[in-house]
Specification:
Helix Hairpins; 106 residues; 4 helices; single chain; 64% helix; mainly alpha
Length: 106
Amino acid sequence: MSLREAQQTVDRWIGQYKEGYFSPLTNLARLTEEVGELAREINHRFGEKTKKLEEAEGSLAMELADILFVVICLANSQGIDLDQAFDSMIRKVTARDAARWTRKER
């Protein structure tokens, strides 16, 4: 599924509800919450903080998907095509980092 297809899927789902998309500030708060949940899971797996015995094992994949969902909601609400935005970002970093000395040889 392309980002465009994901955006269309989310838009169809949101379109079922009369409220529509949350405001950009609300989506930013939601995004912050989701990133916090990802940080917590990574900290439990790779950091010093252990999970409580009664806490269920989390899923990095699901936490990342939650973040992607909110990013898509924010992009859709602002009329941003994420395929185009991602392509532009990749061109930018590719040009910027073309001469990096740490680049792997192929």
